[in-house]
Amino acid sequence: MARFMLLLSTLFLLITDANSISGQWIFDLNRSIKAKEIFASYYKQLDGMVITIDANRSYAILGRESGSWKEHGDAFLLTSKKGKKMGAKLLKENQLLLFRGRVPLFFRKVANGKDISEYIYLDRVYKQRAKVYENGYLYYLFLNNGVFYSYVSNKESVTAEEIKRAGDRLEYQFLGDKIVMKGPYKIVIIAYGKEKIVTSQGDILYLEKKR
Fold first, then answer.
1. Is residue 106 a contact partner of residue 31, using CB atoms and an 8 Å limit?
2. Which of helix, strand or coil describes residue 139?
3. How many Å separate Cα 63 from the centre of its chain?
4. Are 75 and 85 in contact (CB under 8 A)?
5. What are 140-180's pLDDT values in tens digits?
6. Distance between CA 146 and CA 181 in Å, rounded?
7. pTM, entire model
8. CA distance 191 to 171
9. Where would I find the beta strands (DSSP E) of the chain?
């Protein structure tokens, strides 16, 4: 009997978690366009947008807004600190539907458990091989604490220490299958085999050999 109750309790927790609004959600561009192609140009501006919904009734959209949420019948109501409201409803297969006005926004839940060190190399220099900026080569450096450095130099080789000292310090969020940058510009980074990364701005950087 005790084993049965434990199994029942575990099953309940799994069902509750699967149907929970809390967690990280990333904007599903393709699903949204498929649902409402008329808004395709607007949807493309939201590519990479992440919303984090906490069990403590708060939410935050990376680089955009934050606020609180509550149940509203069989759905949810999100209210920003500025008073803007969005309706939300959980769908099957870890999907979340938000309504910003009359515009439907589809999100998919971010899978947890993957460490960023499995995705890219940390504290290693990534470099764009050709000069694409007037000031020289573009360098990236990622640390494990959510900190990221971007650096441009005419030098054909720089160290991680130089990037940390002179580069622009930003923040990132790892979503399991992509990296989303926090900063004045939205940048989504996709890694290929850890040694090549491509940004949503079209920059391609490669892992530098250790010096």
1. yes
2. strand
3. 11
4. no
5. 999 987 899 999 999 999 999 999 999 999 988 888 888 98
6. 10
7. 0.59
8. 17
9. 23-27, 50-53, 58-61, 65-72, 75-80, 85-91, 95-100, 103-109, 125-127, 137-142, 147-153, 168-174, 179-182, 188-192, 196-199, 204-207
